[in-house]
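hey
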């Protein structure tokens, strides 16, 4: 079987010939790459509904504010903008009233009301002021009623609770659609606050002590709310939902005012609500309120990946946007290729590129520092490599401690020679608080003895294995029973263990290694220790893909490098994992030099043939590996033609 060539170990990024630097590429914002979200915002703006909700399924590391603002700006036609002010209720001072004004006319309205009050207090003709106000407000009936009551109030010589009659709370300076992004808000910040004053032991409030909230500021426009903020304060979601359904905003009252009656009139609510969060946050909100699906019937996914093979130019435009947005040095062609390779590694797929801004900007900024340190005008491939190497060095302490056990001989791992029933498996360590996963080889051993054909998994019996691992061990037993025990009972039982493992193991990625170790033990055929392998299997021996292949390969390469590269060492992995390969330069150079090899397999027979150097064959062929296993089992069962009486009696 031929190993993979070096060109198959990394994504192939072919830039257009006319691109020498990233600044040559027209910038494209993330919104231009989000067709699903774009469709949702187009529909949201066209909905004939009051206070509709759009739920965006996103992911961490995306700039929601930029994305949402760009899409709203593109599609919004919700033009019912207005100014909002509060005035003293002339019939009931403890219940201030709202007045809805034409957008941008609030300041003029306050000025004209001041003139009206002055003329009325001097008993002068003020009708022309009233008509002027009503004309500007399109003869709003509520404004007309207020002006009429105000004139009567002044004529009767009655006073006011505050010398300034109008509290202009929301003023639209232009016709720009209000887009308000809510961050770390309290109930008062979201729904508005009623403040109060204390004078000589008396508590009082008035319309000028009303402070607008985010809902007031977004009224007539869009309010964007991260779902995580609502999950931190679940009661706010239900209060917000009530405001949407009743179409009005109830004011937040401090606990100190519980015994004091002051009830401002709730203003009308007309917004488009956009909820953003990842799928876990959406699921938690749904568990909190099962009506979520009914209320937020308009939903869209924000895609985290882009197609490398068919849409690279658009992606380069996105990178150009990020460079300009964060004011970074320009990238030359080699640095762009390296950046795309890094972006592909973040997706674990050679044909995909990550759209997660945080991940991309992190490496771009580190490369920018490396380039500026050398006073370079361009970020080059060497700067990208330096940034990655420096970051790896800063975060490599735990990896070095793992390798130290191999150097000191504390971990009994072999990368040379042959051993029966012993194999190098591959695992990935995920450490809480550490941003990188890294691979670590593990030794699996198998022994066989007389029994009833059961495969005893020590990890499971010692309660150090998860459910998926337990399932994988049962699949191994199913494969062995199907191949070797279909016609006669299997007289051998086996024991399988992960040596020097002291923590819980889960997953099925070691099932191929476990099966090959068992086949070696059953056939008494030694396994080449120069190999390590990973992969899951089904009951028919087909090899299935697993995760973390890059970390696993690089982990075994480190072990081989510590113990000495021989030119024969390598990794066996599922052929279906080939598109996930994105290996370090050092491993690729070793493969190119013939010092390390990577073999893709599709079936367990291919793996065992590589591991033992013997043809697997089938149970009917005596000169093959499987034939020898079948012969041994038949001999122990007493079915072999050449089996003598004493041998059958004593089972040897």
């Amino acid at each position: 079987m031929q190993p993979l060539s070096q060109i198959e170990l990394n994504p192939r990024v072919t830039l257009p010939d006319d691109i020498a630097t990233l600044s040559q590429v027209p910038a494209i914002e993330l919104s231009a790459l989000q067709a699903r979200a774009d469709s949702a915002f187009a529909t949201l703006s066209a909905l004939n509904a009051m206070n509709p909700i759009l739920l965006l399924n996103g992911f961490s590391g995306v700039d929601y504010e930029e994305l949402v603002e760009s899409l709203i700006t593109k599609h919004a036609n919700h033009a019912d903008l207005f100014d909002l002010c509060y005035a003293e209720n002339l019939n009931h001072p403890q219940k201030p009233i709202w007045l809805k004004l034409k957008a941008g006319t609030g300041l003029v309205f306050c000025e004209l009301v001041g003139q009206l009050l002055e003329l009325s207090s001097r008993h002068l003709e003020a009708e022309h002021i009233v008509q002027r106000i009503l004309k500007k407000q399109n003869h709003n009936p509520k404004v007309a009623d207020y002006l009429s009551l105000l004139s009567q109030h002044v004529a009767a010589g009655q006073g006011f609770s505050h010398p300034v009659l109008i509290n202009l709370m929301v003023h639209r300076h232009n016709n720009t659609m209000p887009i308000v992004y809510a961050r770390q808000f309290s109930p008062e910040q979201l729904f508005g606050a009623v403040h109060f004053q204390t004078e000589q032991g008396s508590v009082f409030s008035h319309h000028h002590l009303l402070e607008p909230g985010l809902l007031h500021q977004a009224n007539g426009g869009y309010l964007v709310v991260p779902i995580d903020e609502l999950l931190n304060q679940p009661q706010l979601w239900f209060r917000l939902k009530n405001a949407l359904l009743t179409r009005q905003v109830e004011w937040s009252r401090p606990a100190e005012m519980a015994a004091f009656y002051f009830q401002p009139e709730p203003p009308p609510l007309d917004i488009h609500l956009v909820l953003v969060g990842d799928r876990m946050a959406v699921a938690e909100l749904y568990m909190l309120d099962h009506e979520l699906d009914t209320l937020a019937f308009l939903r869209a996914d924000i895609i985290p990946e882009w197609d490398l093979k068919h849409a690279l130019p658009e992606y380069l435009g996105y990178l150009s946007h990020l460079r300009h947005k964060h004011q970074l040095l320009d990238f030359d062609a080699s640095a762009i290729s390296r950046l795309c390779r890094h972006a592909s590694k973040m997706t674990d797929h050679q044909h995909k590129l990550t759209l997660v801004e945080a991940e991309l900007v992190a490496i771009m900024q580190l490369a920018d520092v490396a380039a500026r340190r050398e006073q370079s005008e361009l970020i080059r491939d060497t700067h990208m490599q330096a940034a990655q190497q420096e970051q790896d060095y800063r975060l490599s302490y735990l990896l070095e401690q793992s390798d130290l056990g191999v150097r000191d001989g504390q971990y009994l791992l072999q990368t040379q020679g042959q051993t029966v029933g012993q194999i190098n498996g591959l695992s990935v360590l995920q450490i809480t608080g550490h941003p990188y996963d890294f691979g670590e080889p593990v030794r699996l051993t198998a022994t066989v003895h007389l029994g009833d054909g059961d495969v005893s998994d020590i990890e499971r019996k010692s309660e150090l294995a998860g459910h998926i691992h337990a399932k994988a061990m049962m699949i191994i037993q199913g494969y062995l029973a199907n191949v070797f025990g279909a016609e006669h009972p299997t007289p051998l039982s086996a024991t399988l263990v992960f040596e020097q493992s002291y923590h819980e193991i889960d997953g099925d990625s070691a099932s191929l290694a476990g099966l090959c170790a068992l086949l070696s033990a059953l056939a008494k055929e030694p396994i080449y220790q120069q190999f390590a392998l990973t992969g899951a299997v089904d009951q028919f021996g087909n090899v299935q893909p697993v995760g973390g292949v890059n970390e696993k390969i690089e982990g075994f390469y480190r072990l081989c490098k510590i113990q000495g590269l021989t030119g024969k060492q390598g990794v066996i992995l599922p052929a279906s994992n080939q598109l996930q390969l994105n290996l370090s330069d050092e491993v690729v150079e070793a493969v190119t030099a013939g010092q390390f090899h990577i073999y893709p397999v599709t079936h367990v027979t291919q793996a065992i043939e590589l591991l033992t150097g013997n043809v697997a064959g089938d149970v009917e062929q005596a000169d093959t590996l499987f034939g020898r296993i079948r012969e041994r089992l038949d001999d122990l069962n007493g079915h072999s033609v050449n089996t003598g009486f004493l041998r059958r009696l004593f089972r040897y």
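Confidence is low (pLDDT under 50) at residues 641-652. The radius of gyration is 36 Å.
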